[in-house]
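Sequence, please.
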């Protein structure tokens, strides 16, 4: 029962994958792609390759719990991904995951371009790990 975690963004999408037991999440990739259709296609192919059964997409809500423009884009993307893949797509509250990912990288003294390339992948790990822990 492998799951794929996704931190969907306008320019980059962070991707994480669970282990086969659904206990831990590992960062897999950061996809530099602006077109949601191509991102969905990439993720569908990845799901087939990994025999994934579910996607978990970070859902960016405002701090007061409302859904803004970024959240609406994410909802549209999640629907597209579900239609294309035929797999379950769960939205998971991702408030503060990008901030936490930046903090982790800062503590590890990762800077500049390296941080930019890693933050989305780490956010995807945090999204997926949070979702898996909630199911226990």
């Amino acid at each position: 029962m492998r799951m794929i975690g996704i931190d969907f963004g306008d320019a980059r999408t962070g991707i994480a994958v669970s282990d086969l037991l659904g206990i831990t999440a590992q960062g897999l990739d950061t996809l530099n792609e602006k077109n949601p259709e191509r991102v969905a296609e990439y993720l569908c192919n990845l799901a087939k390759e990994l025999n994934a059964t579910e996607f978990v997409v970070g859902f960016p809500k405002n701090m007061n719990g409302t859904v803004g423009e970024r959240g609406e884009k994410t909802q549209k993307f999640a629907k597209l991904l579900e239609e294309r893949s035929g797999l379950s797509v769960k939205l998971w509250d991702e408030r503060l995951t990008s901030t936490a990912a930046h903090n982790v990288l800062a503590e590890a003294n990762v800077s500049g371009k390296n941080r930019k390339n890693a933050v989305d992948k780490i956010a995807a790990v945090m999204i997926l790990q949070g979702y898996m822990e909630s199911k226990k």
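The chain has a mean pLDDT of 89.
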